[in-house]
Amino acid sequence: MIEQRPTPDRGRPSAALDEARLRQQAIGVRLRQMFDEVVNEKVPDEFLEILRRADERNSEKG
Amino acid sequence: MGVRPETTPAQDEAFKRELVQLIPHLRAFARTLCGDPAAADDLAQDAMMKAWDARQSFQMGTNMKAWTFMILRNQFYSEKRRSWRQSQLDQEAAERTLVAVDDPEAPVALDELRQGLSMLPPEQREALILVGAGGFAYEEAAEICGCAVGTVKSRVSRARRALHAILDEGAYDRDGAAAGDAMRSILADAERLSTVR
Lengths: 62, 197
Hints:
The complex is a heterodimer of chains A (62) and B (197). With 62 residues, chain A is an all-alpha fold. Chain A is built from two helices and no strands.
């Protein structure tokens, strides 16, 4: 029981490091979330339409 | 004219399939560069068409995602879309409502992150986004940005530190009792304890 608890004095400095790491992790998670939010959006039909037209132009020429 | 090798219909089809799968990622990257969703989609469409037109010069089997991101990035900077980027971002941020965060281990609101990102120098921002969100290795990000691997590494690490500082400062400015304060008091404690011994 007693062995499992670190003394407060030794615990604090590493807690600060842990806090900084957690904070960086939290930022990383949000950064990916922000990006994935757009990745997961439905692609507007316009994109595929433009590509389809380009492909048609291409096969007409060829 | 010229001696460009023609692609076969089958090759075109394979290229197109892969390109279509990349559209969501191109849109996301464009959004981080442009801010304004409509301008970002214009940029992503331009990049998609540039990639399609240049398909003869792409070697199937190599990293098409990195290749298309490079095209999009070059397109962005060549059109100097950068000049009006800032005002677009500010407007977007102003219109966005705060995202509620109930997880204490993820106390970073999305709109604060966006604003924080907008305050970073562009080359740091794009390095952080490519590596931290786009899933690229440092080597790939270096290729996309046309710089050395070591440069990307130092940009990413500077961006992380700066973003951390900006976000904590923002939290402190807002209500004085948020993460910035907690962090400062923890660091002060650590300092005191390490000198008292």
